[in-house]
C-alpha cells in the first residue's frame, strides 16, 4: 500500500471511529456493535503500528474515553482513569505475559489476579472523614475522558451497593484511613435492563443498545429518582489514597474493600500461571450466561503493586493489566420474514423473524431492524442469511448480510405495509421522517400502548396492569393477549379453553377509572383478589402528582424531566393547556420543537376531551410552582460563621434556588466558602486549599 493510501485510510478510519465514539460516549446511543467498533479501532492500531510516523496525539487510539457530556460539573481525577489493552485469544494473552515476565526479576514470584470484566462503566467514589472516625461518600465521578470526570454524586447515592458511609470500626478492620477513593464498575443487571427497555419502547423512545450504555445513560440522568428505579449495582476493585494504591497487592485490595463493606465480585481469584488464567477464563465463559449481569471478558492484573510500578503505563492503559475479551456472540441464520409492530405513537417497527438459532445460551428468533434506513443500510432481503450478534447486549441485532456459496442471497424485498396491521387504516411516512406511522388516532394498537404506558412504573404506577391484562381489557382472550405480546404463558393457562374475542371493557385511558371489580371478574383467570387489587391500584393512582399525569398523556417528546419542568413552571394542567407556543418555549428546559408538540397536542379535541374526562375522575391537575434558577448551577458552597443579614437557612435556600449546592465540609471541590463573623476551621481549611472566600455581599452579588 502506498503511503498516500495509508494516510487516506487512517484518516477515514479516525473520522469513522470519532463518529461512533461520539454516539457511544456522549449520546449513549451506539449504532454499531462493540465487536464492529473493535474491528475498526484494531485496524487503525495495526496501521499506526506499521506507520508510527502517522500517529498523532489526537488519534482515537491515544485517548481513553469520550468527552464528558455537557451539563455536569467536571472534576479532575486524582490520577487518570485508564482504559485496558485487549487480548482476543490465547496467543495474545501469552504475548502479554511474556512482556510482563521480562520486567520481573528472576527470583521474584509473579502472581495474577483474575477478575470478571464487568460490562459497565467505571466510577470513582471519594470518601472523606465524617464524625466518630467514620468516612462518608463525598463525591462520585465518571471516567469522562480519563483525566477529567463528571460529578454524578447525587445519582451515585441511589445505588444500593455503594455504602454512603463506612464506620470507624470497619475502617479499622480494613486498615483504611478516613479519606480514600474507591474505583469500580457500575453495572445494570440484565433484568433491570430488559425492564428499562420495555418502558422506553412503550414511551416511544429508542431502546438502549446494551446494559453498559443503559448504565452510562442512567448515571448521567438529571433525575436521581429515575436512577433509583433502575437498580444499578456497583462492584469495587481499586482502593486509592491521594492517587496511589493504598495496599501492596491487588488481592489485599479486594479483601480490604470487602471488609469495609463494598461489594466486590465474588469470582475474583489469584493465580500463578497463564495456564491457571486460561482455566479461569474457561470457567467464566461457562458461567457467563447465568450471572444476571453482563461480562465481556476477564481482566488480568499483576498482583504486586511494586511490580505494577515497574511495568508502568502506555499512553492510555497500564502494562500491568490486560482485558481478555470474549468473542462476540453471534451466529448466522436465515431471515424468514418481517413483522411490523405498531407503537404508541403509531410508529411501525420492523422486526426480523429469524430461523431460531442458539446464541450464548438463548434461542434467538427475532431481531430488531429499527427502521427503513437500517434496512437500506444492511441491504437485506427476505431469504437472506444474516449475521446476528448479541455482544454484551440482550436485544439481538443483525449486523450484516452473509453472502457466499453456502449462503445464496434472498430475493424478496422488505416492503412496509400500506395499511396498519392492527386496524387496516392507511400508513404514511411524512416528509423528512424516517418512520412510517399508522394515521388512525384510535388504532387499537395505539390504545393498547397508551394504556400500558399510562399504567407503567414511573408514570401512574398501576401495578398489575401490564401488556397481557391490557390485552384482555381490550377484549382479547388470555391466549391471544399473551401471544400478541410474545409473553410465554404457564402451561396450564395456555391449555385453558380459548374464549372468543369479546367486547372491550375500556375505550380510553379514562375508562380505567370507571372499571369495577365485577367487570374484571368476567375476564379469564381473574379472581376476586386480583380484581380488588387492580381496582385499588387504579384508585390510588388518582393521587399521582401532576407531572405524572402529564407523562401519562403520552405527548411526544415529553419525558419525565420535561413533565416536571412543565408542572414546576405552570403549576396546573389548565395553565399548560392554555399556554401559547411562546409561553411554553419560555419555560425552563423546553425547546421550540417540544413546545410546538405540546401546543399541538392540546389543540386536538380528542386529547382535550380525554383531559377533561380525567379531571372528572379526580386526578391531580395542580402542582406547586417551583422555579430553579441556573445562575449557580454546578457550584458548591460551604457556609461558615454568622452572616450580617441572612440566616444560614436563608442563604442555603437562596443558593439552592439559584441551582447551587450547599455542602457541610470544605474540600478541593468546593467552589466558594461563604464566611461571616466567627468563621472557624472551615475558613482555615479554605485558605489552606486556596479556595475562593466570599462575604455576604459577595454572595448576594453572585446571586444577582
Ligand atoms: N459500539 C460503539 O460504537 C463503541 C464506540 C466506542 C467504544 N465502544 C466500546 O467501548 C469499549 C472501550 O471502552 P473502554 O476504554 O472502557 O475499554 P474496555 O471496556 O475495553 O476496558 C476498560 C474498562 O474495563 C472496565 N472494567 C470492568 N471490570 C474491571 C475490572 N475488574 N478491573 C478493571 N477494570 C474493569 C473499566 O471500566 C475500565 O475502564 C470497548 O468495548 C468498545 O467496543 C463501542
Ligand atoms: Zn393502526
From TrEMBL:
<dbReference type="InterPro" id="IPR001357">
    <property type="entry name" value="BRCT_dom"/>
</dbReference>
<keyword id="KW-0479">Metal-binding</keyword>
<comment type="function">
    <text>DNA ligase that catalyzes the formation of phosphodiester linkages between 5'-phosphoryl and 3'-hydroxyl groups in double-stranded DNA using NAD as a coenzyme and as the energy source for the reaction. It is essential for DNA replication and repair of damaged DNA.</text>
</comment>
<keyword id="KW-0862">Zinc</keyword>
<dbReference type="InterPro" id="IPR033136">
    <property type="entry name" value="DNA_ligase_CS"/>
</dbReference>
<dbReference type="Pfam" id="PF03120">
    <property type="entry name" value="OB_DNA_ligase"/>
</dbReference>
<dbReference type="GO" id="GO:0003677">
    <property type="term" value="F:DNA binding"/>
</dbReference>
<feature type="binding site">
    <location>
        <position position="423"/>
    </location>
    <ligand>
        <name>Zn(2+)</name>
    </ligand>
</feature>
<keyword id="KW-0464">Manganese</keyword>
<feature type="active site" description="N6-AMP-lysine intermediate">
    <location>
        <position position="117"/>
    </location>
</feature>
<dbReference type="Pfam" id="PF00533">
    <property type="entry name" value="BRCT"/>
</dbReference>
<dbReference type="InterPro" id="IPR004149">
    <property type="entry name" value="Znf_DNAligase_C4"/>
</dbReference>
<dbReference type="InterPro" id="IPR012340">
    <property type="entry name" value="NA-bd_OB-fold"/>
</dbReference>
<feature type="binding site">
    <location>
        <position position="443"/>
    </location>
    <ligand>
        <name>Zn(2+)</name>
    </ligand>
</feature>
<dbReference type="GO" id="GO:0006281">
    <property type="term" value="P:DNA repair"/>
</dbReference>
<dbReference type="InterPro" id="IPR013840">
    <property type="entry name" value="DNAligase_N"/>
</dbReference>
<dbReference type="Pfam" id="PF14520">
    <property type="entry name" value="HHH_5"/>
</dbReference>
<dbReference type="GO" id="GO:0006260">
    <property type="term" value="P:DNA replication"/>
</dbReference>
<feature type="binding site">
    <location>
        <position position="301"/>
    </location>
    <ligand>
        <name>NAD(+)</name>
    </ligand>
</feature>
<keyword id="KW-0520">NAD</keyword>
<feature type="binding site">
    <location>
        <position position="143"/>
    </location>
    <ligand>
        <name>NAD(+)</name>
    </ligand>
</feature>
<keyword id="KW-0235">DNA replication</keyword>
<feature type="binding site">
    <location>
        <position position="420"/>
    </location>
    <ligand>
        <name>Zn(2+)</name>
    </ligand>
</feature>
<dbReference type="InterPro" id="IPR041663">
    <property type="entry name" value="DisA/LigA_HHH"/>
</dbReference>
<dbReference type="InterPro" id="IPR036420">
    <property type="entry name" value="BRCT_dom_sf"/>
</dbReference>
<keyword id="KW-0436">Ligase</keyword>
<keyword id="KW-0227">DNA damage</keyword>
<dbReference type="Pfam" id="PF01653">
    <property type="entry name" value="DNA_ligase_aden"/>
</dbReference>
<dbReference type="Pfam" id="PF03119">
    <property type="entry name" value="DNA_ligase_ZBD"/>
</dbReference>
<keyword id="KW-0460">Magnesium</keyword>
<dbReference type="InterPro" id="IPR010994">
    <property type="entry name" value="RuvA_2-like"/>
</dbReference>
<feature type="binding site">
    <location>
        <begin position="83"/>
        <end position="84"/>
    </location>
    <ligand>
        <name>NAD(+)</name>
    </ligand>
</feature>
<dbReference type="GO" id="GO:0003911">
    <property type="term" value="F:DNA ligase (NAD+) activity"/>
</dbReference>
<feature type="binding site">
    <location>
        <position position="115"/>
    </location>
    <ligand>
        <name>NAD(+)</name>
    </ligand>
</feature>
<dbReference type="GO" id="GO:0046872">
    <property type="term" value="F:metal ion binding"/>
</dbReference>
<feature type="binding site">
    <location>
        <begin position="34"/>
        <end position="38"/>
    </location>
    <ligand>
        <name>NAD(+)</name>
    </ligand>
</feature>
<dbReference type="InterPro" id="IPR004150">
    <property type="entry name" value="NAD_DNA_ligase_OB"/>
</dbReference>
<dbReference type="InterPro" id="IPR003583">
    <property type="entry name" value="Hlx-hairpin-Hlx_DNA-bd_motif"/>
</dbReference>
<feature type="binding site">
    <location>
        <position position="438"/>
    </location>
    <ligand>
        <name>Zn(2+)</name>
    </ligand>
</feature>
<dbReference type="GO" id="GO:0005829">
    <property type="term" value="C:cytosol"/>
</dbReference>
<protein>
    <recommendedName>
        <fullName>DNA ligase</fullName>
        <ecNumber>6.5.1.2</ecNumber>
    </recommendedName>
</protein>
<comment type="similarity">
    <text>Belongs to the NAD-dependent DNA ligase family. LigA subfamily.</text>
</comment>
